[in-house]
Amino acid sequence: MQNAIVLLIVVVAVAAFLLLAAGVDQGRLGDLPPEGGWDQIIDSSFEPVACPIADRSLDDTHYTGPLIDTHIHIAAIPDDLSAPDLGHDGRPVMGVNIRMTDYVCMMDTEQTSKVFAFFPVWEPIVPELLEVVNRTMAAYPDRFVPFLMPPENDNSPGGYPTVNAETLQTMLNAYPGLFKGYGEIGLYARTGGAAALPPDAERLLEIYPVVRERGLLVYVHLGEGQKESFERALEDNQDISFIWHGDQLIPYVNGEQDLSNVEDILSNHPNAYYGVDELYGDVWLLRPEVSKEEFLAHFADPEPLLEKDLATWKGFIERHPDQVLWGTDRGWSAPWSVDPDVALTLNTYSRAFIGRLDPAVQEKFAYQNAENLISTLSGTSILGN
Asked: 186 φ, ψ to 5°?
């Protein structure tokens, strides 16, 4: 019996060690008790993590300079603490199975200087979600460029993918000057939910003056057939910088992505910027149904993937060197999307891709265009140390 007890203790200890080694500690199991309420959830969002020292070697073909990731989703704290099994559905829940410190570890691991961070803010926990942003910027003022992402009933028929101008003003007033951008706002139609919202729809026309007054960037995900509407919004708001991403304006022609619509917009509108965040070998990889193991295995042989991505994006980036941004679209699909080994794998691949661009373009795509957008608004450099 004594031997059996000892064996059990050893098994439990080994299992605990393996969980910690994999980055799955108590703060990532989805078992956070609700007794402490949102205060406890927010506190847990900033608990320290053991961030491993990155071990990789980059050769002369890799880009080794600074990086700013212009597409990172920040997970929301739960808006219903009574919901059973918080975080067990595999989606990221702030303070439960993912933390702000995980995002910082991600950046440290891959040596990304900072990120454009989309912070969700919605009812019924607007003050709590805003507090997450406020605490983040107090703790890491040089690492995050905060965007306010306020959806409104986007998954409900008859709803909208964003709040109205008055509500947006109220959210921004809570911490004046906290936010640098508005978005990402998905303007496409939701299946069984909100209808598409064209970029020149009345709701957005009322929002643009708020954006202008606050000096914010705008980040949208366009829907199908919204090219002309977007161009009208760009033309009528030339003093606002718009960033967009998504393949709704990129049809496949003879098996290849046709970027002509995107190129038209960039060529005709200097206040438009496009985010390239699908560098996986022409595969949309960071989505909930893809496992971490599948993701890592996908990059086992990067050369064929690089050939595809270079064929699609290299010429496009080099033709529009001042209006294209690097990003990864992480943080919304699964908690593991910000894990150190995932960060290192994706970042090494991105650096290999950037290293094969024209040397005159590499730094612009990697960080300078992003830095210029923010410094234009604030009047200062934001690269940090």
From this structure: -80, 110
pLDDT at 251: 87
CA atoms within 13 A on the CB side of 157: 1
pLDDT per position as a tens digit, 131-181: 999 999 999 999 999 999 999 988 888 899 999 999 999 999 999 999 999
Identify whether the C-beta of residue 167 lies closer than 8 Å to the C-beta of residue 202.
Answer: no
Residue 308 has pLDDT above 60, yes or no: yes
Tokens of 330: 């992480």
With cut-offs at 50, 70 and 90, classify the pLDDT of residue 2.
very low
Neighbour-count burial of 4, counting CB atoms closer than 10 A to its CB (0-12 exposed, 13-18 middle, 19+ buried): exposed
Residue 370 amino acid letter? A
Q: Where are the domains of the chain?
A: 31-378
Rounded distance between C-alpha atoms, residue 42 and residue 129, angstroms: 9
Q: Which superfamily is assigned to 31-378 in CATH?
A: Metal-dependent hydrolases (3.20.20.140)
Q: What single-letter DSSP state applies at residue 194? A: P
pTM for the full model? 0.89
Most distant CA atoms of the chain, gap in Å = 79
CA distance linking residue 3 with residue 385, whole number of Å: 54
Burial pattern 64-82, b for ≥16 Cβ within 10 A else e, equals eebbbbbbbbbbbbbeebe
Q: State the Cα angle at 30 between 143 and 147, rounded to 5°.
A: 30
Sheet holding 144-149, edge to edge: 68-73, 114-120, 144-149, 181-186, 217-221, 242-245, 272-276, 324-326
- Specify the 3-state DSSP secondary structure of 328: coil
pLDDT digits (tens, 9 = 90+) for 323-347: 999 999 999 999 999 999 999 999 9
Structure tokens at 39: 């205060």
The CB density around residue 96, as the number of other CB atoms within 10 Å, is 24
Report the C-alpha gap between 142 and 161 in whole angstroms: 30
